[in-house]
Amino acid sequence: MDKIQLLDEPLIRSLLDETISFYEVMNAYNIQTQVAFVLPPSVYGFVFLSKNSNYYIILNGNINYETQVRTFVHEVKHIVEDCPKHNYIIGIDMQHTELEDDSNLQKIFNV
């Protein structure tokens, strides 16, 4: 079992009972978290690596808090395990959609 799997349940529990917040956890690691209300329902969240090499986790604000927490942990795993070289989103169907133009994300999320 890898270290991320060991952290899953304690981290999820702490986020769900609001002992800690997304922002506190990620700011400690210089990862910005934003909740966006402009995402389609099929996109729970995604990781975005800015042109300045800063990671952003964008969560869908139109889904319930528990789903946001689970999506948050899932996206942290992508940062730790995958360190994506290209930006992409994962939809509900688990299909990767690569984002060709990073400037659109930067405009939408002010990053």
Describe this structure in words.
By secondary structure, this protein is of the alpha+beta class. It has one domain (3-109). The protein has helices spanning 3-16, 22-28, 65-82, 102-109; strands at 32-36, 45-49, 55-60, 88-90, 96-98. The longest helix has 18 residues, at 65-82. The chain is globular. This is IrrE N-terminal-like domain-containing protein.
What attributes does this structure have?
three-stranded mixed sheet, 4 helices, IrrE N-terminal-like domain-containing protein, 111 residues, 42% helix, single chain, alpha+beta
What's a concise summary of this model?
By secondary structure, the protein is of the alpha+beta class. Helices cover 42% and strands 20% of the residues. This is IrrE N-terminal-like domain-containing protein.
